[in-house]
Structure formats: structure tokens, C-alpha cells
């Protein structure tokens, strides 16, 4: 059985898509085909509620047009548009925040999140609550590197994240680290080795979770609120979203 | 002091905008100017996570272009894009679900929500949790009238909602009713009289709450995550949202 | 429509009543008449559970004897006797802690409370929990100025509260301030200007909330536990409370 | 060591005081002296928030004047004025709702409360939450017998409570019963025998809990908010409460 | 890379081990070797807290003696001894209740659990709370078939579980089913087809989760409480557990 | 009435049994007979989830063989096997963590726990949550003295615990201390005197709680999940546990 996983980068920066695709491939099982996808509309990076909201049309369009994929990964730590994505996909969709936190919950008492900007800290806490992991999330720490700078100097990025991870563990008394941005993909192996605790990257975690659902033959329930949305008129710039 | 409140209908159906505007005017104080606004893009009604996500660009555009308003009301019971709206508005923005639930919490032990479609029940519960009113929300009941049919036959609508409200109170042991759709505006007075308990309409509740914030001189905090979003490149259909 | 709001100072110090009345008038809408009320029995200030419990008979008496008011504000941050007050008033009664916290929840991610005495910190947390805002309340900080000294040297009071507010925001990572004592009325405008974040005073917040309920025609539900209390024999000093 | 327990009936009906005193004596250890106390002011029974608030001055007076007691039991299921009582007593004070619920929590998965009037159901739930037993409290059921009628026809009272207890267990899936009114004292032995599950009476539970604290030499902490209240001027009918 | 998963049946009935092994193999990826393990001591089935506690030594012994496995699945829905197992394994250990509930949480708004005996219902709720899924778990329903009878007549078992699943969905308003016993392995495909909603079996869910952790190179944290237990003297029947 | 309390030391170190027995006798009422019990199998001390799980068979055996006791105390702060113990005892069983925390909750706003090893801190938090006291537990502090060293130099032990208790109160803002290990029995009187706040020892707290249940005639409910476990075959080393 070939399993096809589309890993969607919800922002429009294609170098980040390549990074994410690589991380997903590293952990995918034999016989799984991973494809990175970049939306045709939306923000270059996601660093506010505003950006997050405006990234959703683009990623929904990707899903609507991808009939091949068996499952999708949404590679932004805010899990933007996750419920809407599940409605239109009718196939498994995994957000990387959900995947990373639920994976970390299998590995220790509590985890600390190391994320990018301070203004996204509240959003990470909101997600921890929605996913029922408020007690296991011991802290969320922003290193205040803008998303697109994560890629520019990987050595500096590594050093900063390592330092924040150490501080987080000491302050929070946690025993695992969650990387709170898709742009940190590629770092967990080195960090795990150096920190001596599990370091979870959401892209990797979501990829194996998506594969696992496909192997079990499980899809989002269409019995209740995740059934396909009722068709209707859409107007203006977004008129295309009304078509099926 | 003249207070200007823009009441945004997040869907694109202008008859509903008129209905909402009327309800807001009914409760606004002397000297307050209420204006209804309809977005130029998006779905004709909001009945899924998909619709809700795709209503957000349109309402954000309305806010961005309305420099006159002292405060905004978002008149959809899903409170779509509320955080993003507060970021770009830098003025009070009140969602009608938040307003209705927080108002009902002042009036009794617990309230029941009567909403439109079954598939939105979960969303109403999510909001009750986010607003800290999970314990006071005693039940959410869907009358399964599609949003745009609410207007068509107001007598039938009234009768159905009355029946659901009675059932809700009996089943839930609640002592107040929250109307869970902007399209139910205009009904609370009659319902309050007939049911003998407070019936809260979110449009009315949000309008007086918005006025109250303006009178107190309070705006969303720009100290943390609700600061204006950092400017950046946007591409494709949504390129206009990158401009300031 | 003239709206009459009685603002009750639950302690017996009339200079504080005047201060509170002034703050309420500052934010009340055109056509609203605000009257301050001082009870005829009880403690000179409220600084313990004991004081709070013994302030309740006096404020209930004020409500019983005030047939003119359309709504009441209870101007003590412990919201003493709020449920009992709603039972006997059959009109809206708003406590300033409830009002302040619910207002702050509209303005940012989280708020810090600056209150008077350390021994009341636990009570403020209890109220945050009862009102469902435990997660948004990021900290409660006592400046340890006794209630009646707040008025004596307003400059010193202002300086101390400013300093505590700054510390609170830094420690708690909050983006709004709630003033945790009716005796701090009059300070929020200056503090908002200096701190650059919303500063919420409960007396102002409760006043506009009370007006808003009156405009919506909403009263406490008499369907359940807030129905008027059943009449019965009262004895001793409190015999008068049995009469209707 | 003689242990002296004062069991305070917070209402002014002395026949109920006698009933309560008897139940406390039934379970007290050898060498423990139990005395029932009736306040000199307040309501004849407690059936509303209003009654509950106005019962507090009377019970605080009883505590202030009783220098002999080693510990106090507050025998009303609303636990009125419990924090204030602990402040002025500086000795253990146990409320019967707290005692009954914490005792039931040692005996099974969950308990149902059978109480008197429907309008007190919410208060019972509030207490379950405050005491951290919201999950173990599976239901609160009102038999709608007014408090003072409980005594009038004990056979009928027993029959009604038995029936409600059976219904409660079936509906709630609970495995223990808590009697939700001091006036139900004297019934638990018979009910336990007939129902085949533990039936907890708060007066009995609080009495042994009070004894246990005395034997351990434990008193309310005076380090924080339960320290004796600061002295101050009291006026009007309640002027006597300012004296020490 | 060959991945070796040991699937431990915590009871001593080897026919059940075979059933579980088959279900795990059905979903395992290419290149994964699944081995069923039966303990040498303990109860024939787990149907009480007593049985569950006494199953733990046997499963810990299996883990201690299995140096080959890359990860372990604990195939009893009570997740017995999960923390202790993680301490001694130093490799991933997944309990089937945790796996099933966390998997169901990816597929819909809420799930219902269909389990064996009524007396285990409380334990399932406890686990839902520990795993942060109390809100998503909409109900736990016992079909009251003893564990070892599940195998005896698979047609009858299928029919009973199907009926309970339908009832559960109707009563709970849930949109997914979790099978609450390892002995129900093998049924999810048929049930999913007939019910039209996702049906999650914990053995399958845990197997793919275990594989996923191995592929990511993640192990339980040894930084905190899951570090290997300190060696010490053990006496009596259990003396062997002190040796390393 | 003679009340017989068996105080079970869940580890196999008999000097600790003697210490615990003495503490229980100090607080037991006149006419109560306290007997310390040491299991015949299991670990010399309990310092990991592994030790805790393997202590359970030994303590269950003690209960099964002790037909004389009216109630049992489990004297390990992890409350190991508490539910299983209640099933087989059919008489009251009180864990010292449950007893200590529920007792401390009667004495102040919040308590801090001082325990032995850092790796048990998480377990103490878990129990606080299970017992509904998560909010009142203000902190858990490990002094990192191994359990069996607590007895070796009581002066040093006292000094270390005193220092940790002072730090805990300052950091946590708590007003009571809970001693988080049975091996700290004997210290609370001195500590209470020196710290000026209530210091609760679980062995003492559990002993009076057990007596209280016996005096009230209350036993664990056999109606639901705490009914005696169904008999069945046990194999291997644990075969004896299948016999009744």
C-alpha cells in the first residue's frame, strides 16, 4: 500500500515548504510518498492572529485541489483552520501543534514549548487547552526570532533554541521540549542528543500520525460537525470557494 | 459625545444586515450612531467551520476601511476572527456570542443556547469554554432552521424558537435563554414576555457593551498579542491584505 | 428614557460613597441618573471575610428600601451578598469585581488585579474562578494600603498603585490591569495613559453594564434560585428583615 | 482529654438545634462533650441566599461568645459564613456540606445529594466546586420539603427522602448518598440499611472531623487570610460586632 | 530499518494474546515485526482494581526480560502500570486506552467508549481525565460481557457491541466510537462500515503510535520521574524484582 | 466500643512501621487499638512508580489476612493501590496523602507539600488533582532525602524539612504545610510550634479519619466499582491472590 501525505506549508514561502518536506520524509515509513505544498495566496509568514486567519483560504484551496493525498499535515504551529480543513478534506488532517503536544504527552510528565514570537505565546496556550494538555504544558517560551529568519542562519538559530530549551526546562521543571514552529524542522535530532531529553518536532510527529490513521483506515467523522460543508453562494474575491 | 458603532454582519446577505442594525439601534443610548456593514466577499451565510473561516477576510476588510467607528460588533454567533479583528481595529470589537453569554451570566444560575444548525452546537460549546462560561452554559439546542430561512417566515421562526426555548429550560434546568444566531435579532422582547425569563440577544448585548467600553475610554491592549500585526508581503487573491 | 442607577457603597464611610458616585457619573450615558448610597449599619471598611459578611445586611436594607432604582451597583471588590441582592432587588445588580473582570476579558489575553490588603488576595482569586476567568486572571497583587487610607493622600496612592501595576504586568505577562478596590475609583484614566494598557475600574465598568441591562429590558431571572426569597419569621436584632 | 464541640444551628428554631445535637452525640467519641447552640438573631430557617446571608451575624455572635469550645460545627448545608467563622473562632470550624462531601469522597466513585428546596440546588453545586468535588458529586436532587416541615412528620420525611435517594442513584449512577440538610440528621442509619450504600449526614461527619482536628492539635492558619479580622468601627444595628 | 514492537497482553490468557497480536499486525507498517507476549503471573482477566493492580508485576517482568523490543504496547484498556513500565523500559510504552482516546480526538468532536463491565466505567473516565480528554469523552457504556466471553461467540459479541455503539452515539451526541477492551480487537473495520463513523481500537492505535515514536527516535524522558527506578532490596515473593 | 485500626506500612522496613504506629497512637481516641503492619513481600522503600506498583501485592495480602481490623490506614504518600484495597477490605481504607490533603483543606487557603525525592513530585500533584485539591495545593517541594535516611538522623531531617517548609510557604504564599512521606511522622508538633502554621502529617490525619468513619458506621460502597472483585484464576507467583 502506498500512502500519500501532503504536507502543507500554510505560508507562501517556498523555501520553508522544502524544509518541512524534508523533515516529513526523514520519518515517513517505507512506501509513503511525502509531497510539500505551498498555497497560492496569503501571508509570507504567520506571526499574528491576522496572518493566521488570512492563511486559511490558501490552505483550504490546496486541500480542495489535491484529490490524490491520503492525508494532510498542516505545518504551522497555530494549527490554522484545522476544523475547516477536516470538513473539506474528508481525509485525515493533522496540525503540527496538536501532533507535537500529543506526542510529547507520551514521553514524560510535562513539556515546554519553544516558539518564535512573544505575541504567539497565548495562542500556544490556547491550543494546549483545546487539546486537553494544559497541565502537561509547563511553559511556552518565545525566542523572538521572526519566522523567516529561522532559516537564514541555522547555526545561530540552533544556538538560540538550545539556550531557550535549557532555560525552559530549568524554569518549568519539564522533561521534554516541543518545538513551536514549523521552521524549526530539522533540529530535533541534534537537540535531543545535546539536551538529553526528548525534543519533538511537530512536522515529524504529524507525519507519522497521519500515516498511522491511514493504516488504520480512519477518516474524520462525517456524522456530525465535520461533515462536508453545505454548498452555498460566495461572493467577491472569494467567489471561487462556493464552487464544488 | 457621539459614539459610532459599526455592526458588521459577517455574511454577505444584506437583508440580514438590516435586521441586525435595527436590533442594535433599539438598545443603543441617546447620541449613539449605529451603522450596519456588509462585507464585499465571503459566504451568504455561515453554517460550517469552512464558511466561518472564509467569512473572516471580508470582515477584516470592513474594519480596515472603517476609520470612523469607535467600536465594532461582529454579528455572527461563532465570533469569527475576533482576535484578528481586535488586532487590526485598535478599537473595541465585541462578538455577539461573547456578549450574549457574558450578559446572561449576570442574570441567573445558568442559560441555555438556542441556535440554528446541529453542526454548530460544538462551536457554541467551544466558545462557552473560551469565555469561561462552560458551567453556566447548561445546554445548546439546535432548531435546525438554516440561517437564511430565519427571516423568511418570522411567525414560524418565532414559534419554533419558543418551543425550543421551553424544552431547553425544562431539560437543562436553566433560568435564562441565549439566542444563538444574529438572525434571531428582534425576537427577545416577545420571548422574554412569553417565557418569563431573561432572553438575551447577542446583537443587543454587544451593542451596549461596545458603547460601555467607549464611554470608559477602553481599547484592546496593544501591549501584547493584540498589538497591530507586523506588516509583510501577501500574495495572490489576498495580496491587498498586506498593504496598510 | 431616564435610567436610575443606585451605586451602593457596602461600607459605612460616606466620603467613599462620594468618590464612587463621581466615578459612576463620569461614565454614565446621557439621561442616566446616578445616586450613591451608604448603608445605615455595618463596618467602616471591608478588609476580612468577617467585615464582608457583616456588610451584607446593610446593603440588603438599602436595596429593600430603594424602589426607584432601575439597577444597582455593589461597590466593593468582594461582591458581597451579590446573589442575595439579586433575589431581593428583582432588578439588575452588578458587583464591581464581576464587572471589572468581565470587562478586562474583552480587552486582552490576561489581566492582573491590584488590590489593597494581602488577606483579600484569596477572595479575588475565588471570584475570578466563580466568574470563569481564572485563566485570564494572571495575578492578584496586594499593595497593602488599608482601604480608608486610599483616600487620604491620593498622590501617594497613585504612585504606589502605578508601581504595583508595573510589577504585576512584568511578573504576570498580562496586558491589562484591574483595580481591585472601589476606593481606587478615579485613577484609571491617569493610569491608562501612563501604563499604555487598559486599566479597568469596577465602578465604571459596573455602571455601564447596569445601564446596558436596563436598556435591553433584562432583569435577574425569577424562574429559579434568584426568585424573591420566601417570607418567614426573623428574630432578634435582624427581626426587621423578615418583614416585606 | 475532654474535647468540647459546639454544634451551631444557624437558624433560630431550637427544636432543630436539639435534633442536631442528638446526631452529633451519637457519633462523638468517649470523652467528647457536645453542646447545641441557637443564635439570638436571624431567620427561622434558611431557604434562600437572603436567609443564608442574614444567618451569618447570629452564628458569628455565637462563636464570639463561646470561649469554651475546642471546635465548632456549622449545621446548615450552605456552610454560611464559614470563612468568617474561621477568622473569629481561631479554632476549628467545620461546615456540614464540606464535611459530608469530603466524607462521601472516601467511600465510592461518586455521591448524589438529596436536599430540600429546588432553589438551593445551585448552592450545593457551588460548594461541591469550591471543595474540589465537582466530579464526584453526580447529582443534586431537591425533595421540595421546606426545612421546618422535615421534623413534622418524620415517617413521611423518611419515605420521601428514601424515594429521592433511590431515584438519584439510578439517574446519576452514584454509589453513595449525601443528606443535604441538617434537618435530615437522624436518618442515615435507617437509610444506609435500606439502600445498601453509605448515607452520609453532615452533622455526624462534621462532628468526628472536628474531634479529629482537635486530637491532632490543628487550628485554622493565622498566617494568611484566616488571621483574626482587624478591629474597626461598626455602626447601626451591628455596632456590637466592632467590639472585641 | 526493522522496528520490533512487543504487544503485551496484561492478563494470562494466551488466546487473547493471539487475537491482539493479529490486530497489531494488521496495521503495522512494512518492515515492522510484531510479537505478542503473555505474562507468567497474574489474573486470567482484568475486571477490577484488584485484578489490575495484580497484573502489573507480570507485565513489568515481560518488559524487563525483553531487550529486543524497540517499543511496547500494553493491551488492557485500564493502561495498568503505564508509568512504572515507562521507567523500566527506557523505550516507548503505549497503553491502549491512551492511544485509542488520543486517536479518536483527531477524528471528531467527541467519542463514546463501549467497554465490558459496569464496574470499569469509572476507571475509563479517570483515564480520560488523566489524558486531558474528559470533554471529548462524551460517554462510557458497559455492555456487561465478561472479558473472556468476548472471544467465545464473536457474532454475538459483534451484535451486542454494535447495539451499544448505536445507543451511545444517540445518547451522547458523539461522532466516533472507542472500543474499551483489548478483547474487542478485530471488530473495528466491520463496525466502521456499519456505523458510518470512525471506530477506534486501542491495539491498532497503540501499534502505529509506537512505530511512529521509534521512527522519530523518541524515548521516554529519563530527565525526571521516568528515569530508571533506583535499585533496592525487595523481599518475599517479589524478591526477584529487586535484581537488575 | 473498641475500634481497631490497622496502620499498614506499604514498604517492608519494620522500623518505619514502628514509627508510623507511634504517630497513629498519639492521635487515636480513647478505646481505639492501633496496630502497625508490615507486608511480607515488596520493596524496602517506595521511591518510583515501579516500587509503588510492586508494593501493592504485599499490602493487599495484609488486608486480606486481617479480619479483625475495623479500618485500615495506608501509610505511603503515593496512596498505592487505594481503590484495590477498598475493594478487598470492605471496610474503610484511608490513604495518607488523601487524608493529609483533605485535612489541610480545612485549615487555610492553600497548603504546600514537603516530600522526599524530586521524582515523586509529579505523583503528589496527580493525587492533589484526583482528590480535587489542585487549586489548594500551592506547591510540592522535594528535600531529596531518600525515604530510609529520614529515620537515621532525626535532628538533621527535622532541620532540612523545617528549611524546606519555610521556603515553600514564602514561594507559594501558602498558609499550611503537608508532610509528604510517612517517614516524617512524629515531626508535625515541633514544626507547627516553630512555623506558626498548621503542619499536617498524613498518618495522624488518616487515623482520626478512619476512626470517624467507623463511628459513623460507614464503609466503602459495594454498590458499584468498589464491590468485592469477582473471583478468578491467578497464575504463577501470584496464584495465591486468586483464592478467597
Automatic annotation (TrEMBL), chains A, B, C, D, E, F:
Source domain of life: Bacteria
InterPro entries associated with the record: Asp/Glu/hydantoin_racemase, Hydantoin_racemase-like, Iso_Racemase_Enz_sf
Pfam families membership: Asp_Glu_race
Family according to the record: Belongs to the HyuE racemase family.
Protein name, as recorded: Aspartate/glutamate racemase family protein
Organism field: Pedococcus ginsenosidimutans
Lineage: Bacteria, Bacillati, Actinomycetota, Actinomycetes, Micrococcales
